Each structure stands twice: as structure tokens, then as C-alpha cells.
Task: structure prediction
Amino acid sequence: MSGALPVPLSAASTPRIAPLYRLQFEPAQDCWVLLYPEGLVRLNAPAAEILRRCDGTRSIDALVAELEQAFGESELRGDVCDFLGDAHGRGWIV
Result:
């Protein structure tokens, strides 16, 4: 995994869920989903934990630090940045 962020994302960026999407927990699915007009995206647990923190108030640096502290892990930056790059490419976050 590269851990590189696509332009225009940087370590100081404060990602948020794109306006077209809504993040919510679906009891019927027993998971977090991203809803959009044409359907939904079922999220695995790590993706949900990352996207739940994409509220436009946390920098990517702060988001990574919070995840590392919450899960007692270090070295999550590469995985988190790879996911955020993919989510940005899919239009899930801005």
C-alpha cells in the first residue's frame, strides 16, 4: 500500500462526506452504509470507522491519530490514506 494521498488531499485536509451521500447505520443490514440516490454502498467495519470521522472538522493527520489511539494500533497511516484516496476517487468524500 502506498499511503499517498491524491491531489487535492493532504495531511492537513479535512475530508467530509460528499453532499450526494449520507452515512448511516442500517439495522436491517447490520452495518454502516453510504446512501445515495441510486442505491447504497455497504461498508466494512474499517471503512465505516474512517468515514464516520470524515466530518469536515478533523485533518487527515488527526483522523489517523484518533484511529490509532482508538484501536491501540500504530502504523495505520498507509491504510487510512489508501482508503481515503479510493473514497475520494469514488466521490464519497470531498
Summary: Residues 33 and 42 are 5 Å apart (CA to CA).
